[in-house]
Design goal:
This protein has about 325 residues and is an alpha/beta fold. The protein is built from twelve helices and nine strands. Strands 1, 2, 3, 4, 5, 6, 7, 8 and 9 form a nine-stranded mixed sheet that branches. Helix 1 links the parallel strand 1 and strand 2.
Length: about 325
């Protein structure tokens, strides 16, 4: 049973060595380790070759194209994917393989945290852990940071959609197409990779804006999936626009007192309803985090989630223009 490991890497010289070392030290050896250098300008290729990994190189086309290049050159019956800033656990490969049986096209695992000293990183990890705890053995979404696919499933669907040029939405899209084609997807909670989560709020919010943009492409391609999947539900789709309305209500509230009483009452009623809806969607998560960890510092996630929703909303607005309005006008 041959397993190939494929790692897309873009300017990953600082983290790739730890990833490759973990891949080499697996309890069940992979037949090959393939790093696809996605047009890096640092020493990514040199680091890959220092571990005797096969290093393929391409122009900067994005992780979807890099993964496709990797698995198409691989020889394994199964292809495992992780990211260059992840550190797979010692039994990562064997735990993923345990999930395969007839009809299963892909098996995915979960995250641990590689940088727990940073508060933002701990918040991100806790949210992921809470969401993953809701998973059953059968899922409808697998993240490309920790996943293994049958080669035949990749061949049947064509692999990742390379129109997703950034690291966002391409793993959802592949999982949706596999599920729609009749393949089963499974979750293996003991298959773990540690990840270097973001530590700077500004860069994290820029990433979330990008996610909002590419989500619109994802939903343009899979409109029935806008209601969500096992990881992110309808509430995650509704929260970003609600955050904008909530902010607008607060900003214009002082000016509203200049309105006639009837309009002021209407404004406060609508604004109050929006506020309650938004808080109902976002307040439970930081409270769950505190219950899980006992750390009151994680209450600050409420503020982070609000800023994240605003960033996602801006990306979604651009995405709606690009993938719905502009595309419709060009049809």
């Amino acid at each position: 049973m041959l397993v190939s490991i494929v790692i897309p890497a873009y300017n990953a010289g600082n983290t790739l060595a730890a990833c490759l070392d973990a891949c080499v030290q697996q309890s069940q050896n992979a037949a090959e380790i393939i790093v696809v250098d996605d047009g890096s300008t640092d020493d990514t290729a040199e680091v890959a070759r220092s571990f005797a990994a096969e290093c393929l190189q391409q122009h900067h086309l994005g992780p979807a194209a890099a993964r496709n290049k990797g698995w198409r050159m691989a020889h394994g019956e199964f292809v495992a994917f992780t990211d260059a800033d992840c550190i797979p656990g010692h039994d990562w490969i064997s735990r993923l393989l345990e999930g395969f049986e007839d009809g299963v096209g892909g098996v995915g695992g979960t995250y641990a945290i590689a940088n727990p000293k940073h508060l933002l990183a701990r918040m991100i990890q806790e949210e992921i852990a809470i969401r993953h705890a809701r998973f059953g053995p059968e899922v409808d979404f697998l993240g490309s940071f920790n996943v293994m696919y049958r080669r035949t499933a990749l061949e049947a669907t064509g692999g990742f959609d390379e129109h997703f040029r950034a690291a966002s939405g391409e793993d959802n899209d592949l999982a949706y197409r596999l599920a729609d084609a009749g393949w089963r997807l499974r979750y293996a909670p003991l298959a773990i990779v540690a990840h270097h989560h973001p530590t700077r709020l500004g860069s994290y919010l820029c990433t979330q804006m990008r996610h909002g943009f590419w989500r619109m492409k994802l939903y343009a391609k899979h409109p029935k999936r806008a209601r969500g999947d096992r990881y992110a539900g309808l509430a995650d789709f509704a929260a970003p626009p609600l955050s904008v309305l909530f902010l607008a209500f607060l900003v214009f509230l002082p000016a509203a007192f200049l309105l006639p009483k009837s309009l002021l009452l209407l404004y406060t009623a609508i604004g109050g309803l929006v506020s309650l809806l938004y808080l109902a969607l976002r307040l439970p998560m930081p409270l769950r985090m505190v219950r899980r960890t006992g750390s009151l510092k994680l209450l600050e996630f409420g503020d982070v989630a609000f800023l994240r929703d605003l960033a996602r909303a801006s990306g979604m607005a651009i995405g709606v223009w690009r993938f719905f309005i502009r595309r419709k006008g060009q049809a």
